[in-house]
Amino acid sequence: MKHEAYIRGIGYYAPEKVLTNADLEKIVETSDEWITSRTGIKERHIAAPGETVSDMTAQAARAALADAGLPAEAITHILLYTVTPDYFTPSASCLLEEKLGIRGRVVQDVNAACSGYLYGLEMARAILALHPEAVVLMAAAEVLTSRTNWADRRTCVLFGDAAAAAVVTSQAPPVSQARVMDVRLSSDGSLGHLLTIKGGGSGQPYKLGDVVGEEFFLAMNGPEVFKHAVRNMAGVCEEILSANGLSKDDIALFIPHQANWRIMEAVAKKLSLSTEKVMSTVARFGNTSASTVGVALVEARSAGRIPAGSTVLLAAFGGGFTWGSALLQF
C-alpha cells in the first residue's frame, strides 16, 4: 500500500550578520560589479562566532513546527543534511534533538552536499512508507563560511549560511500545504574531485600541531561544475516531468538550487521555462548549499508565488556529485 507524503510545515533561519559585496571588497580583490555580473549575488548571511549548524537548524525547525501546528514532541524522526556539522561526533541531529527538548527519536546526519534538501524529501518518503504514523523533521543546514577560504576570490564570494526545515507526514494537513508528488535523485562519484572539502577527513587527517592548509577549505573547478550542474539539473527535471506526464506549461514555479544566477538561468533555458517562473533568492542569501531550495520555498510561499493548486518543480546539484528534482502539488 502506497502512503502519500505531505509537507505539513516549512521554515528557515538565516543568521543576523549580513556580508555585502562592498564588505568583500575590503577583504579580497573583487568588486560588487564583478560578483553581481557573474553570480547575481549581492549579499549573504554569516553565522556568528560559535553559531553552529544545530543552533541554526533548531531555529528553522521551530519555525516549521509552528507552521505545521505541531509540538516538538510529535517528531519521531530527525534527518539533518549538511557537510558542515557541529562536530564529527556527536552528530548535529543528536544535538538538534536535545535543543528541541526531546529524546528517543531516530536521528541521523547525512551528507548529500547541495542536494541535501531533495535527498531529505526522498528519505522522508521512504520512512513514511514503512511507518505511516511517523512525523519526520527533515532539515538541511550549512555553516559553509566555516570552510570558506577568504583568500580565494573565486569561491569566497559565493557562500553564505542558513538552515531550512520541513515537517513531513503521511497525513494530509488540516490546512493545505504540499503533497510530494515525486522525487528523482542521482549521483556520479567519478566527478567528485571537481568540488571538494578534504582537510580533516580520514583521507587527509591532521596530527596535533599541524597547520591547517588550503585543503581544509572548499575548492572548486568552477567552469566544470557549471557545465555539469546545468546538464544534470536540466536532465533530471526533464526525467521527472516526463515520468509524471507533465510539461513545462504545467509548472507554476521552478525553484532550483541557488548556486548562482547564471546556472539557474541556463537550466531554465534548457527547460524552456521563462525566467519569470524561476524563484531566485541568490541575491540576498548567496549559495547556502543544502538549504538553498528550502529557503527559497519558504520565500516563494511568503511572496504569494505559490497559489493553491500550483505544481512546483524543485532541482538541486551539489558536490559528490549529487543531483535531484522533486515535484510538489500545493
Poorly predicted runs are none
Number of strands: 13
Biggest sheet features: 9 strands, mixed
What is the name of the CATH class of the largest domain?
Answer: Alpha Beta
The average pLDDT score comes to 96
Descriptive account of the structure:
The structure is a single chain. This protein has nine helices and 13 strands. With 330 residues, it is an alpha+beta fold. It has two domains: 6-175, Thiolase/Chalcone synthase (Peroxisomal Thiolase, Chain A, domain 1), CATH 3.40.47.10; 179-329, 3-Layer(aba) Sandwich (Peroxisomal Thiolase, Chain A, domain 1). The radius of gyration is 19 Å and the shape is globular.
Short summary of the structure?
The protein is α+β, with helices and mostly antiparallel strands and 330 residues long. The protein is 30% helix and 24% strand. It contains nine helices and 13 strands.
Can you lay out the helices and strands and say which pair or pack?
Blueprint: E1 6-13, E2 17-20, H1 21-25, H2 32-39, E3 43-46, H3 53-68, E4 77-81, H4 92-99, E5 106-110, H5 116-130, E6 135-143, E7 161-169, E8 178-187, E9 195-196, E10 219-220, H6 222-243, E11 253-256, H7 261-270, H8 282-285, H9 292-302, E12 311-318, E13 322-329
Parallel strand pairs: 4-5, 4-6, 11-12
Antiparallel strand pairs: 1-7, 1-8, 2-3, 6-7, 8-13, 9-10, 12-13
Helix pairs in contact: 3-4, 6-7
